[in-house]
Write a structure and sequence with these properties.
4% of the residues lie in helices and 45% in strands.
């Protein structure tokens, strides 16, 4: 008969010694249900006395499945955060992230919205990127968004134990929201507060509510979510398990959406006669810096402006065929075909057909497409134009800005008869009589004396404008 080696005997003896010598390794296990068909249950870290903790899993927009799990653990009264990747496996161990601080109880949970998985035909929680952390310190319940401890909010006082859970929210009416719920015990009674969506779309921590049906004397609390769209408050009370359930809050009205699966087979395709169209093989665009300006302005420096406007009048008819606009500074550059097109006149139907620059008179000359009555006031507007410039502050080039001037209306004078005088002397000579003149004659024996009376007239201007 073969003898057992001494080393093997010692290993077998040690198998039973660990229980009697209290040398058995202590493991800390946190378990949570992550979906309909998965359960996370594994050690986070070893050789630490068992305490409390909580786990939350993440699935953000664009992720087809669970991607991360976060855990919060109490190690000798100090809360620490851990993370691990999914899918669960030995290649993705739990990793320490950061330390929250001292606490007597902790909880962690994601906020998010409920989405329908069209392929699996069930709802899943589409979470935010980071979870909310709840902790009790000096009997005060606080909440903070991930690492944002500077904005931690006080939710309740006199708290002994907490439990967090994300409730159901309607995808049809978002304000029908059970919210992100934190339940807690105060003096053996069950209370809760919820971060809920309001009618205006904002999320607010609503007021404290008591679950009065559970009474007092409760020693533990667990907030759970059921598959029939309820929230449950489960407590241990004097050796009994008590459960209080809310009303249902249907995520998608509790009706599974109808789906149609279509497969294609024996597909055929016909191509009609192809019509070839020749297109440009190359297209290009180019630009140039024909009129660059680098402007350095100073206060109270003279800008170019309109000094006066003069009409170009025709010799016959009370009309003009253009305008000569005198400027306060000389212009440089050239006038191309685009300048008169952009000039505008206030007279309907009349445009500027061409333009020139008179350097001697320092004036822009605009010619109109048709004659304009001089009795009409005309507003002339010239555009900002970069091919024309003037010098300012020495040798700086400044492009022509937008200028506007009004050519005032004129009056056409007509002359009428008012008063005119004429004198005539008497002679003893031959006499003739005009029918248009009244003549009174006195005829002595030998000499004819003629007296001529005529009205006096003068010419006064009369405007063509209405009174």
């Amino acid at each position: 008969m073969r003898s057992i080696p001494t080393a093997l005997k010692e290993k077998l003896a040690n198998r039973f010694k660990v229980e009697t010598t209290d040398s058995l390794a202590k493991l800390r296990v946190v378990a949570t249900q992550t979906s309909v068909n998965s359960l996370l249950s594994e050690p986070i870290h070893e050789d630490i006395a068992p305490a409390f903790g909580d786990v939350a899993v993440r699935q953000t927009a664009g992720e087809s499945d669970l991607s991360l799990a976060y855990a919060i653990c109490l190690d000798d009264g100090v809360a620490k955060i851990y993370k691990r990747k999914f899918p669960a496996g030995l290649e993705y161990p739990w990793e320490y992230q950061w330390t929250l601080g001292t606490a007597t109880d902790v909880a962690i949970e994601f906020n998010g919205v409920w989405k329908m998985n069209a392929e699996k035909e069930w709802y899943y929680l589409q979470t935010e990127e980071y979870p909310y952390i709840f902790y009790v310190r000096n009997s005060n319940l606080y909440v903070q968004s991930w690492t944002d401890g500077d904005h931690a909010a006080l939710l309740a006082t006199g708290v002994s134990q907490i439990s967090a859970c994300k409730g159901w929210q309607s995808s049809v009416e978002p304000d029908l929201d059970q919210g992100l719920i934190i339940g807690y015990l105060k003096n053996g009674s069950v209370y809760y507060r919820a971060l809920c969506c309001q009618e205006n779309g904002n999320y607010v921590w609503e007021a404290e509510h008591e679950v009065a049906t559970l009474g007092t004397g409760n020693t533990t609390l667990s907030v759970i979510r059921t598959n029939d769209f309820r929230i449950g408050f489960l407590t241990q009370n004097n050796g009994r398990m008590l459960l209080a359930l809310t009303h249902r809050n249907y995520a998608g009205m509790s009706v599974r959406p109808e789906t149609v699966h279509i497969n294609a087979s024996n597909v055929r395709m016909w191509i009609s006669d192809i019509t070839e169209l020749g297109t440009l093989s190359k297209e290009s665009a180019s630009g140039n810096t024909a009129y660059p300006y680098v402007l350095l302005d100073a206060p109270d420096t003279g800008e170019i402006s309109v000094a006066s406007v003069e009409k170009l009048n025709r010799e016959t008819g009370f009309v003009c065929y253009g305008f000569k606009i005198h400027l306060t500074k000389p212009l440089n550059g050239s006038i191309d075909a685009g300048f008169p097109v952009k000039c505008t006149l206030s007279v309907s139907g009349v445009t500027v057909s061409s333009a020139t620059y008179d350097s001697e008179e320092q004036a822009l000359v605009l010619y109109t497409s048709s004659d304009i009555r001089r009795t009409v006031a005309v507003t002339i507007t010239m555009p900002e134009y970069r091919s024309l410039w003037y010098y300012k502050l020495g040798t700086q080039r400044w492009f022509l800005p937008t200028l506007s001037i009004v050519a005032a209306s004129e009056t056409l004078d007509y002359f009428t008869y008012e008063k005119e005088t004429a004198a005539i002397s008497t002679i003893s000579a031959g006499v003739w009589i005009d029918e248009a003149v009244f003549i009174e004659c006195f005829q002595p024996a030998h000499t004819a004396v003629i007296a001529v009376v005529a009205s006096s007239v003068s010419l006064q201007p009369v405007s063509t404008l209405p009174i």
